[in-house]
Amino acid sequence: MKLAALFNALISVTAMLCLNIAHAADAPAVGSAAPNFKLQDQNGQTHTLDEYKGKWLALYFYPKDNTPGCTTQACEFRDNIFAFREIGAVIVGISVDDAASHKKFAEEHGLPFTLLADPTKTTATAYGVMRGLTGAVGVAQRDTFLIDPAGKIAKHYVRVDPKGHSQIVLADIKALQAKK
User: What's the rounded Cα separation, in Å, for the pair 18 and 21?
Assistant: First the structure.
């Protein structure tokens, strides 16, 4: 009986790895147009990609509100918000949590940027960042996309370490701006 349980666990892990590989391959390529979205934020306002045209956008996907890694990542973006604003860049976070969860998360940690709710997982799927099953149990992988003022993907960070990520994104935006 233990061998059967081990075999089933191995098959489950293999399936999860295959799903991750398939989703990573579905991510939009650097240089391509960023997939559009229409999502609600933590305050019930609807946002689309088009409203960020003309600005640098750090669009970061994260697994779940109020978890340790996601809180670290969000708070580091919060702590660097003035540096991002100074260079004309906008920060937007997306997870598959609902708007009410985002509201609580933003209020609890004083997050001064938009958190978009993607409970249908449509946007996370379009960006190729869904991890696990796309049904009730899937979450977004911790990926970030830098989107340039023309709406094209300038950089894609895959499975980022939340600690220090904000500084890396900020430095990369500055470097990309210097090239243009």
Answer: 5
Q: pTM for this one?
A: 0.84
Strand order in the sheet with 144-147: 46-48, 38-41, 114-117, 89-95, 56-61, 144-147, 153-157
Residues serving a catalytic function are 70
Residue 170 in tokens: 């900020």
Q: Along the chain (180 residues), what's the average pLDDT of each consecutive run of 10 residues?
A: 46 40 68 97 97 97 92 96 97 96 96 96 94 70 96 95 95 92
Which structural domains are found in the chain, ordered by start? Answer: 2-179 (3.40.30.10)
Q: Considering only CA atoms, which of 140, 141, 144 is closest in space to residue 171?
A: 144
